[in-house]
Design goal:
Length: 158
């Protein structure tokens, strides 16, 4: 029997120490979250992308009475980038959730969002830096791949 350990590294920094660009991205995610359509969960999520061409694209969750038809903030933002700038790689994504209009401690993206991020990362052939934003701290992960160990991707299809 062989034991295989998979490590995952992340950086955590106080919001006050974010670079001006990262802070701007976080603010854009907050603004997007305020536009969320979340009448069922009241969990308002916003995502803001920085593309390699300097453009920012945002998204927020879009709920549905039929819950499987709900669209997450990350997927809304990534899809929007795919529509507007299909050839431009994504450099960063900032994600935040608001409860009663206040940021939560930190959001962790759902499995489906991780899988979708991974596809955009592969498509752009460049790592997407992920900022999991919270009230006081931000956790930074250097790629979608490291957020989804043992992931399924086109490599499996051959
Ligand atoms: N949600 C997101 O937008 N992104 C995630 O990564 C996790 C969950 C949304 C979906 C739903 O509208 C609400 O949060 C509660 O699950």
């Amino acid at each position: 029997m062989k034991e295989i350990k998979i490590d995952m590294k992340l950086e955590e920094i106080p919001v006050s120490e974010l670079s001006p660009l990262d802070r701007e991205l976080m603010n854009r995610a907050i603004a997007a979250a305020r536009n969320a359509y979340a009448p069922y969960s009241h969990f308002h999520v916003g995502a803001a992308l920085m593309l390699t061409n300097g453009k920012m694209v945002t998204g927020c969750n879009q709920e549905n009475a039929a819950s499987p038809s709900c669209v997450c903030a990350e997927v809304a933002a990534l899809t929007q980038a795919g529509v507007l700038y299909p050839k431009v790689p994504i450099r960063d994504i900032a994600i935040i959730a608001l409860k009663k209009e206040e940021p939560t401690e930190r959001i962790a993206p759902c499995g489906n969002c991780r899988q979708v991020m991974l596809e955009y990362e592969k498509r752009g052939n460049s790592p997407i830096r992920i900022l999991l934003c919270g009230r006081e701290k931000v956790q930074i992960i250097t790629s979608a791949k490291s957020l989804l160990p043992l992931s399924f991707s086109a490599d499996e299809l051959g």
